[in-house]
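Here is one chain, start to finish.
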Amino acid sequence: LAFLFCLSFSKQLEIKADNFSADEKKMVNILSGSVLVKSNEDVLRSDKLLIFTDKNNKPLKYVASGNASFKILIKDKFYTGSANELIYYATNDIYEANGNAYIQDLSTNNKLYGNKISIDKKKQSYTVFGLNNKKPARFIFNLKEDFKWKWMLVF
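Its structure:
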């Protein structure tokens, strides 16, 4: 099954899945089995996807679960990631990765891990949350060989 949603600002969204059902009263579309979502350079993959829409069938929020992973473009840089659940808020252009969240900058190989990672594409920023002391946020940055620590004192 393959179908297209056309967003009001001429952006095309292609979604493919093995199965599709819709509940017009609840304004939700349910896709399952090898779900693939493509929007310009962004790609989302999962076993299940819920698409919540407004009364005009315009997508508002996507909730992906089961082997959920993504590849997104932010200011000429590609990032990949995964989580137990991925949420995309279409009206704000914000991605939220929940549970065993991971994101990697493909240009630098820098990695972020946390219980929750929020990615704001408009602001070109991200926030990482750990899970209290049990599982803190973790960052892995690759430093250049000639990198030297420089200390700055502020008075």
